[in-house]
Amino acid sequence: MKPAPRLLSVATALPPHRFDQEETLAVARSVFAHRLRDFERLAPVFANTGIRTRHAACPIDWYLEPHGWGERAAVFERVALDLLEDAASKALALAGLRPADVDAIVCATTTGIATPSLEALLLDRMGFRPDTVRLPVFGLGCAGGALGLSRAADLARAMPGRMVLFLVVELCTLSHRPEAATPTNVVASALFADGAAAALLRLPSDGGVPGGPRVLDGAEHTWPGTRRIMGWRIEEEGFGVVFSQDIPRLIRERLVPVVDDFLDRRGMARSGLAGLVCHPGGAKVLQAMEEVLAPATAGMEDSWTVLRHCGNMSAASVMFVLERRLQAEASGPHLMLALGPGFTAALTLLDL
């Protein structure tokens, strides 16, 4: 097996605006009900998501009015940088490090665009070195937490002894479009939330084996013929969400062989896993994962808790689940799993 970088710390950050699901339903009803004949038929999705509260980049009144690309981009850059600075500062403090100790930064996002990219904008703001290696990663969607952590681990393997900072931020609520009265937009309003996370990784260069969780390996599998299952449409006002009701069915029909092959090639089986770190994409997604990944269901309660209190924060969500597993002092081999546009399964094997 590959050399395994150590996780020195994991930290998360949430924006200040917090909505409960009843409040969100009331706002959605005021925005969509008079323009979407089937709104009341769709309304139960707000209760069925499993979400009680979520955090958002803007006050709730912001979501009542239309906003163009320029305004959305400005909000994305401002709030994303604030959240990344918060998460990165926490991760550095937990590891007893300073920004100048970081040698490389991997930054994943899919819900907004900034050029220079977000981690470049953080260099002066936080005091990272001018020679910091940067790797912005765009387009992985909900898979970006698991795949981004794997990419950061690959970079740490290629730079023994160097400190790698993994950042992920998603502001999913900025895709809310009050003028787009469609069933998909209503479901997105019931699910989407905002958040960020950071993790520090390092592969010892001297052969030493310090304590701490290890990132053992990672892989991905993109199923043929599934490119339109999940993603964005690029429209005049901003991103238009794309996701299919077939996702839970695809999990039940296609995920197990991919997981079992990934584990088998590493001399493992699902029965040998101590637990899971699953992206909480929604209640139906988590229910399907629990069914097919048994008997390895330890850790699913953390995914349900993150969904309940934070909603679906796309790529950032799985890092919130990992943070909870570490805080609970979980140990042993864990499979981090998320599904994203492609349609792609992201798998990262951890030893906590």
Automatic annotation (TrEMBL):
<feature type="domain" description="Chalcone/stilbene synthase N-terminal">
    <location>
        <begin position="72"/>
        <end position="200"/>
    </location>
</feature>
<protein>
    <submittedName>
        <fullName>Alkylresorcinol/alkylpyrone synthase</fullName>
    </submittedName>
</protein>
<dbReference type="Pfam" id="PF00195">
    <property type="entry name" value="Chal_sti_synt_N"/>
</dbReference>
<feature type="domain" description="Chalcone/stilbene synthase C-terminal">
    <location>
        <begin position="222"/>
        <end position="345"/>
    </location>
</feature>
<dbReference type="InterPro" id="IPR016039">
    <property type="entry name" value="Thiolase-like"/>
</dbReference>
<keyword id="KW-0808">Transferase</keyword>
<dbReference type="InterPro" id="IPR011141">
    <property type="entry name" value="Polyketide_synthase_type-III"/>
</dbReference>
<comment type="similarity">
    <text>Belongs to the thiolase-like superfamily. Chalcone/stilbene synthases family.</text>
</comment>
<dbReference type="InterPro" id="IPR012328">
    <property type="entry name" value="Chalcone/stilbene_synt_C"/>
</dbReference>
<dbReference type="Pfam" id="PF02797">
    <property type="entry name" value="Chal_sti_synt_C"/>
</dbReference>
<keyword id="KW-0012">Acyltransferase</keyword>
<dbReference type="InterPro" id="IPR001099">
    <property type="entry name" value="Chalcone/stilbene_synt_N"/>
</dbReference>
